[in-house]
Amino acid sequence: RKEVEQDPGPFNVPEGATVAFNCTYSNSASQSFFWYRQDCRKEPKLLMSVYSSGNEDGRFTAQLNRASQYISLLIRDSKLSDSATYLCVVGHTGGFKTIFGAGTRLFVKA
Amino acid sequence: ETGVTQSPTHLIKTRGQQVTLRCSSQSGHNTVSWYQQALGQGPQFIFQYYREEENGRGNFPPRFSGLQFPNYSSELNVNALELDDSALYLCASSRYGVRQETQYFGPGTRLLVL
């Protein structure tokens, strides 16, 4: 079993749609959680950190459920520019090993 | 832009050769992590350097080694290259802390092993 698992996708949605990505992690000692975005042939860029209380940044909402070891990302009112791969990232203290999921590809169409 | 730079941008090597990739961290950052990203996969953690020492390692063989310099820049060395080493190699800089700090990635080096 992979340490961080994401919906494989791809997700094909029309502009204006709401789309949700799910991610599960296996190591209960994980302490830091992030969503990164990666455009084709580019480096990953931080989209948002994920906090236990949940957090929102504009059209993006991230949730963390430690009991279920589950992270989610909700994108509302999708834009064409949201088309990218979304990477779920889990960090551990002690060695600072960081685990990336394989990513979920999103295509937003006009 | 993140301020993290990597060189070279592209590289072609043959099996059995050795390669050195370089990374300059963002100003104010003292930690560098290296990742390997194969096509269609997420980045895989190779190792992290802090205070010029390895501070955590993923499931990569010893032929993957690194260095960090006093100015916090870093090198990734891969010996005895194999075809499966073909990938995008990313470095990320961050500030060392109790929690995993946000990492800022460089543009990567694309390595092709023939």
Task: Characterize the structure shown.
The complex is a heterodimer of chains A (110) and B (114). Chain A is built from no helices and eleven strands. Chain A has 110 residues and is mainly β. Chain A is 0% helix and 53% strand. The model of chain A has no long low-confidence stretch (mean pLDDT 92). Chain B is built from no helices and eleven strands. In chain B, strand 7 (64-68) and strand 8 (74-78) form a beta hairpin. Chain B is globular, with a radius of gyration of 13 Å. The mean pLDDT of chain B is 92. The interface between A and B is medium-sized, with 24 and 27 residues.
Question: Can you give me a brief rundown of this structure?
Answer:
The complex is a heterodimer of chains A (about 110) and B (about 110). Helix content of chain A is about 0%, strand content about 55%.
Q: How do the helices and strands line up, and which of them pair or pack?
A:
The complex is a heterodimer of chains A (110) and B (114).
Chain A: E1 4-6, E2 11-14, E3 19-25, E4 32-38, E5 45-49, E6 55-57, E7 60-65, E8 70-75, E9 84-91, E10 98-100, E11 104-109
Chain B: E1 5-7, E2 10-13, E3 19-24, E4 31-37, E5 44-50, E6 53-57, E7 64-68, E8 74-78, E9 87-94, E10 104-105, E11 109-113
Parallel strand pairs in B: 2-11
Antiparallel strand pairs in B: 1-3, 3-8, 4-5, 4-9, 5-6, 7-8, 9-10, 9-11
